[in-house]
Amino acid sequence: MQAFSRKVLSCDKKTGASAVLRALRVSVVVFLCCTCITPLSAQGGKKINLRHADKLKGSKEAKTQRLIGHVEFEHQGAVMYCDSAYLYNETNSLEAFGHVHIQHGDSLHMYGETLKYDGNERKAELFKNISMSDGDMILVTDYLVYDLKNKVASYNTGGTITSKGNTLKSKLGYYSSESRTLTFRKDVELFTPEYTMNCDTLRYVPGTKIAYFMGPTTMWNPDNAMYCEDGYYDTNLDRGRFSKKAALVSNKRALMGDSLFYDRKTRTGMAKGNVTLLDTARKMIITGDLGIHHEKTEHSLVTGRAMYTQIYDKDSLFLHADTLQAFTRYDTVKGSDPEAPRFDTLRTVYGYRNVKFFKSDMQGKCDSMIFTSSDSTMRLFGKPVLWNEQSQLTAEKISILMTNDEIKQMLLENTAFIASQEDSTRYNQIKGRKMTGYFRKSELYRVDVEGNGQTLYFVKDKNEIIGVNKVDCSKLSIFVAEDEIKKITFFNKPDATLYPPIDLSPREALLKDFRWRGKERPAKKADIFVE
Predict the structure, then answer these.
(1) 421, β-bridge pairs
(2) CB within 8 A of 240, min separation 6: which ones?
(3) Largest CA distance in the chain
(4) Distances 137 to 14, 50, 211 between C-alpha atoms, Å
(5) DSSP secondary structure of 346-413
(6) Is residue 285 part of a domain?
(7) Cβ atoms 117, 93 nearer than 8 A
(8) One domain for residues 433 and 338
(9) Which residues of the chain have a pLDDT value below 70?
(10) Rounded to two decimals, what is the model's pTM?
């Protein structure tokens, strides 16, 4: 360089400019070469530091060194121990054998039989009988890759993790020692003292003991089972949120919804959006917008477009109310063996406010209702009204007995009324303090009237009205066929009058307290939601 400088300085003025330009070009080339060479030497990263070995075969300058006995390496915050090793100085890598141990940071430890370590990439491959621990978390597998740079461990041949009584297994797994987060895929199983979980993908944070799952997921124990395709579960608090086809199943009952919250300690589930509560034993379904199910008391509540469906073999009953509640209790049934008693499951369903229901052979409306499975009876309160074929039935309280999926008997109490429309202005009517209606194949065929009995019906001859029969009697029985009164039996002295049709005004042709409510009748299932 000095010779080059002297040559430039000794040039005359004519040649000086060109010489300076040539010198500058050479300087730029030299500079560029230097800058290119420097990174190449840096790409190798920091050299692996040999801290100890009982025996060393090969000089310090050798490309390969054989190390035996209590071997110890250090590389950028990681310390590696083994029984023997090969250190490859040229590639900045090593192979270790026997009682391999890697310590990274204060708490992360990895053990195995064999190690391949790349110092430039800062990646370790462990083989056979591997265990990794970080705090109270322990991973066991046969093949593990640990990226020291990103602090991520992974396996793809199956692994098992234990942490505070929980055991987790999967085909693939990843562990971030920085965030202390575990991610698992394929054949994932989580075992806890309370339940077992199977899923496709699971992210688990041992520090918080919260499991996040994606894809088809099932949780179960002897008491219940859960299914969803997205959600999380806090294994510490024993509660979680589940979504995408979420379902909770217990004792032949299932609670489903768009999202489901479950507290295992209180055994309470709450579902939101497209809620379905299914009781397969009683062939009962309750749907709505919000549902709550208490497993301990077997009490359920559904609100928001709530609908109760009672499934029968030939037909179904659809009932809507602002709020529906269902309770279950068990009664002991005496059998032939006193030491092995049987239990009868009794179900009670309550409907509150704006109750309306539809069945092909019966429709109704009231303010509240109770259905009890013990006697298969539905009780209606608050201005109840029923329609069966052409008949309208009203009273202060109505009870309906169902047998073999059909209406068997009906009890109308206080201001009981049965009416059928003869034409647009005339109605056949039966009134009394108490009435009992009897049905055959869900058709009314007989009515017993007790107390203050009154009837008003139109007498026809060849489908032509020839008179109006008005009878007062405290006790009577009426026999009906094809929605027409065929016979009346009086048990006390009746007061009966047959009027010509023109002799009774429209008002006189209506018994006291009569009210026709045909416009309120649901003609189809969807009408139960119409105000």
Answers:
(1) 427
(2) 211, 231, 232, 233, 234, 261, 262
(3) 155
(4) 80, 30, 14
(5) EEEEEEEEEEEEEETTEEEEEEEEEEETTTTEEEEESS-EEEETTEEEE-SEEEEEEETTEEEEEEEE
(6) yes
(7) yes
(8) no
(9) 1-45, 59-61, 330-345, 483
(10) 0.72
Q: How far is CA 184 from CA 5, 140, 365, in A?
A: 67, 14, 54
Residues 504 and 392 in one domain: yes
Which residue type sits at 505?
S
Domain that holds residue 260: 238-360
Residue 501 lies in a domain: yes
By the 8 A CB rule, do 67 and 81 touch?
A: no
**Residue-level pLDDT at 2:** 40
CATH number of the CATH domain containing 442:
2.60.450.10
Verify that 432 and 476 share a domain, yes or no.
yes
pLDDT of residue 367: 94
CATH number at 312 reads: 2.60.450
Q: Are residues 337 and 401 located together in one domain of the fold?
A: no
Q: How many domains does the chain have?
A: 2
pLDDT of residue 62: 77
Q: Please indicate, yes or no, whether residues 315 and 452 belong to a single structural domain of this protein.
A: no
Q: Identify whether 434 is part of a domain.
A: yes
In this prediction, residue 20 carries a pLDDT of: 31
Residue with tokens 């489908």: 463
Query: Is the distance from CB of 388 to CB of 406 less than 8 angstroms?
Result: no
Residue 206 lies in a domain: no
Euclidean distance between CA atoms 403 and 88, whole angstroms: 88
- Give the per-residue SS3 of 66-92: EEEEEEEEEECCEEEEEEEEEEECCCC
